[in-house]
Amino acid sequence: METIDFIIFLVYFIVLISIGLLGVLKAKSSEKYMVAGRNLGLFMLFGCLTAVFLGGSSTIGSSQLGYEIGFSGFWFVFALGIGITIFGLLFLERIMDLKVITISELLYKLFGNKVRIIGAFVTAMYTLMISVTQVIAIGAVISQIFNWNLMMSILIGGSIVFIYTILGGMWTLSITDVIQFSIMTIGMFLIMLPMSLNSVGGFSSLLEQVPNSHLSFTNIGFGEIMKYFITYTLGVMVGQDIWQRFFTGKTKLISKTSGVLVGIYSGLYSIAMVIIGMCAYVLFPHIKNTQNVFSHIAFETLPPGLLGIVFAALIAAIMSTASGTLLASATIVSNDILKPYFFKSINDKQYLRLTRITTLFLAVVAIVISIWVKEVLVAIDIAYAILTGGMFMPVILGLYMKNITSRAAFLAIIASVLVVLIGIVLAGPQSTITIVVALLTNAIILIGVTYFDKKHKKTIL
Question: Who contacts 277 (Cβ-Cβ below 8 Å, separation ≥6)?
Fold first, then answer.
């Protein structure tokens, strides 16, 4: 990288930190810190929603899949975007009417205290693990740019993104995410994609040079495609980071429209990343660590200046997701565990301080886990497996089946999470069977235990 590329990075980081410092002055209430005062318009909310789910795993992971399997890698990101769209159209209005901030708070209204606590732990694990995937991705990019070892890169990159998150909360993230969304769109669609295609002689030339298997959208098999939809579409529909962004919309119509736009954008972004990965396959068919595919083709094909913009776009995609998921995890812990059970009498100013401290603590935990895991796609599979298996059924069935008992929901979450953890150990984190068994276990226990509870109650009466 040339001097101009480093200047672009320096200016970008200074802007982000400055917005974080300004956020300390603006985010003076817990509502502004957690949901930005519920006052975002269509463009800002669309940008924020897109930025929070299109992160390092979507960018680095999709280009890696494009390199390895071609167009079949499209389904990964697309499944996430479709989940956000379905949630916005079918479930958002019903949930917003309940005036909740977190998934665990919804579970409390549906099933009571015990389910709220276990739900808080499960959703906090998910959001923290998603944040971990982004810190790993930040470390991977920084290590490529500066030729540092991965541990050093994770420590420095993770610290930068978490500083402005801790300072300004959702108020800061709403502004930084729109900036990051704009940079990401320009860098990926207007620079990286056309430059990659140009380097292989154009799109038609690319299609002639890749293996035939890379040209099929179903090459990975319908089983693997179904895995993406079961794991990611269902999972993102009960993702605290996604819910929290939806709740910042000024009106329900704005929130719903933003969800539809996210689905469209996710399809376009997924195709772009996969094509970039396929171009890398043509140019560099022997890359050993395919997690570095995006960085490799960027270094080899982009001139100074443009290289800095593209890497800033990549960092923007990663940072927006890392910050959003960290704040979501901190919101769950402070709102659903610490405040209701340990700090019941604190005022809003004290609650805001508690949430900032919680965010700081979880940031440290995320960095430590990132150093240990080191693999983006493995971490995201673990996160979504836990979330989808444990939380989808209680949330969705709880909204539409009013007679489900608290004991049924509690046992269903515990049992399904155990199924997921055992499945990860026995079959690996990418097993579709694990998720299916967990979902079935969850549904059977919810319905079965509720039936016996109702029957037992009638017998006593």
Answer: 62, 63, 64, 65, 66, 67, 68, 73, 293, 294
